[in-house]
Design brief:
four-stranded antiparallel sheet, seven-stranded mixed sheet, single chain, 25% strand, alpha/beta, 9 helices, Rossmann fold
């Protein structure tokens, strides 16, 4: 293992016994940091990721060997744009759907989001009665975009996603993490911080990939979430167990609904059978599907 990597126990329960379950054709733990940099962003015909192991105590699927914090900072800071992604309109429609799942709960207090990106959900939340927006986004280049998304509401935007100490305890009505939890080296510590910030009636909404989904079983090792950016992956049982360990209650896990352009789905289907196609003569008409992801809701108390 090279010096930029670390060895770790299960990040959910601290367990030390695990067995390998998913191996890449090119195992990341055997490669140099320079080689892994070339696989960090973009899409490749040959899959490269760290071997995923199944914890024998809590059943989490995770990487016992992974990049250390300094290496991750370097990799994320140099990450090139991925040109084979879902369109911005589809992403916006998907994230608005997430917010609508919780918007009818009479949410009050502050709004907290970890990794809000350009602020699709922030913009929707700004139409509600939140009294302050706490946004933790490492990409400094989009902080002005986030401030615009907050639509003039009081907002604090910070680049450090690991330290939530500035947020008053017991003040947050809604906390949001969309495709963030499975990027964290220490997800339990983050969830414990968030719980302390929630009001007694506050809610946490998390969106993650579902490693027990039909899509994962169909695609096998080609499933896109098996990649260098995900040190752990969840299923409904393991994410619920992690939340309980962090002190949450009222936990509900459901398949999430995503909006995909038709041509994007066709390219993904081609990739499943080993074909890398840059374009397909199909329209980019939006299609709403429950496909491979899950939405989790939790609170301080049973609701």
């Amino acid at each position: 293992m090279n010096q930029e990597m670390i060895a770790r126990n299960c990040p959910a329960c601290g367990g030390t016994t695990s067995v390998p379950e998913v191996e890449a054709p090119l195992k990341a733990e055997t490669q140099s940091h320079a080689v892994l940099q070339s696989f960090w962003s973009g899409l490749y015909n040959r899959k490269c990721f760290f071997t995923y192991y199944r914890c024998q105590d809590c059943r989490l699927l995770y990487n016992p060997n992974f990049f250390g914090p300094d290496a991750l900072t370097d990799l994320y800071s140099s990450m090139a744009p991925n040109m084979d992604i879902v369109s911005g309109d589809a992403v916006a429609a998907t994230q608005l759907g997430y917010f609508e799942r919780v918007a009818g709960r009479g949410l009050t207090g502050s709004y907290l989001e970890i990794g809000p990106d350009v602020g699709h959900i922030v913009a929707a939340a700004a139409q509600r009665s939140f009294d302050h927006f706490w946004l933790f986004e490492p990409n400094l280049a989009i902080h002005d975009v986030l401030r615009t998304a907050a639509a003039g509401e009081p907002a604090t935007i910070a680049a450090d996603m690991e330290d939530l100490s500035a947020v008053p305890d017991g003040s947050v009505g809604l906390a949001v993490m969309v495709h963030v939890l499975d990027h964290l080296l220490d997800p339990l510590a983050m969830l414990e911080q968030i719980r302390a910030k929630l009001r007694p009636d506050g809610r946490l909404m998390i969106v993650t990939h579902n490693e027990a989904s039909l899509l994962r079983r169909v695609m096998g090792v080609r499933w896109p979430p098996f990649c260098l950016q995900h040190p752990e992956l969840y299923n409904p049982d393991t994410i619920a167990a992690l939340l309980r360990r962090a002190g949450f209650a009222g936990i509900a896990v459901e398949r999430s609904c995503n909006v995909f352009p038709l041509d994007f789905l066709a390219r993904q289907a081609a990739w499943t059978v080993g074909l890398r196609l840059k374009s397909i003569p199909l329209p980019s008409s939006p299609i709403r599907l429950r496909l491979g992801n899950m939405l989790t809701l939790a609170g301080v108390s049973e609701i």
